Amino acid sequence: MEQSNQTENIKAGKPVILSGIQPTGGLHIGNLFGAIKNWVAMQDEYQCYFTIVDLHSITNKQVPAELRRSTLDMAAMLIACGIDTDKSVLFVQSHVPEHAELAWVLICLAGTGELSRMTQFKDKAAQHPENVNAGLFAYPVLMAADILLYQADLVPVGEDQKQHLELTRDIAQRFNHNYSDTFKIPDAYIPKTGARIMSLQEPTKKMSKSDENKKATIFLSESDEEIKNKIKRAVTDSGELLNDDFFKNASINHESLMDFMKNRPGLANLLTLYHASTNKAFIEMGKDLAGKGFGDIKSIVAEAMADYLNPIRTKYNEIRKDENKLKELLAQGAEKAHSVALKTLRKVYKKVGFYSL
């Protein structure tokens, strides 16, 4: 049934989208509300490939046993959040060897000058000068292989990945020019604006899994009590309490909330969290929060967020407990991905002149 569903989707001519996520660090609420919810929503409209990019993750030093565990953790959490393996192809990058094989062909087309100009490479090299390896340098070419293998029409990218997508387009056009049309030229996918979740301890910067302050980030696998405690300890701002008029102001919307309340980012973040976890309209939020002290607001938001995440965590624990079933789903995903990736790689090998047996 899964294979037939995939075939029907492809035959229907649905645009292809590919998204990758590293397995290390775990998912937090910023990932959920900013990206994963959009991934879930696009599954009916697009042919989606979601890959856990473990090959990318070894540009940093890793503990092998932890990488294996976190890869399965990530797969289970994505399914718990709504990635449907009957609708989409979910797979682990290293299970499809065509990714690494195509990357070598493409790296022979990429210039060292253009790779050295990648902002993310320069930033990471500056942050970790003891580990400036060739894999980090060539990271964007492997990302290009991830995308081009599946003839992706669209790629959801954040600000930090736009430059990599431009390089992907350049490499694809270069290959097509040298060897004839082979790759689709992918475009950036601009999703509906997701909730912008900020650090609980420094609300002027985005929530991050790598934040050294463990109180700043809420991970999806955390218990109700851990979630509530982190929100109750969130940094807020001095100022007047919010009244009914604030919530009735028609010029305010959730997308512009952080800009509207730029002098009170901590409070704006709490309001964003409440909206994200309840999906209440702004004026409805006012009925719950107007006139409340900051301590009461934190308690209300904490309860709402814990209630929202509890079913996701429960489903995650159920999926993760049945490891054999989880591995079976990933094997099925790898098989589907491999069947598509191999077609592309065979075309590439033939065009560059490799002799085939």
Question: What is the element layout, followed by pairings?
Answer:
Elements: H1 2-11, E1 16-21, H2 29-41, E2 47-52, H3 54-57, H4 64-81, E3 89-92, H5 98-107, H6 112-116, H7 119-127, H8 134-148, E4 154-156, H9 162-179, E5 187-189, H10 224-232, H11 244-248, H12 257-260, H13 265-278, H14 282-289, H15 294-321, H16 323-352
Parallel strand pairs: 1-2, 2-3, 4-5
Short characterization:
With 357 residues, this protein is mainly α. Strands 1-2-3 form a 3-stranded parallel beta sheet. A two-stranded parallel ribbon has the order 4-5.
Task: Based on the model shown, name its key terms.
357 residues; mainly alpha; Rossmann fold; Tyrosyl-Transfer RNA Synthetase; 2 domains; three-stranded parallel sheet; two-stranded parallel ribbon; 16 helices
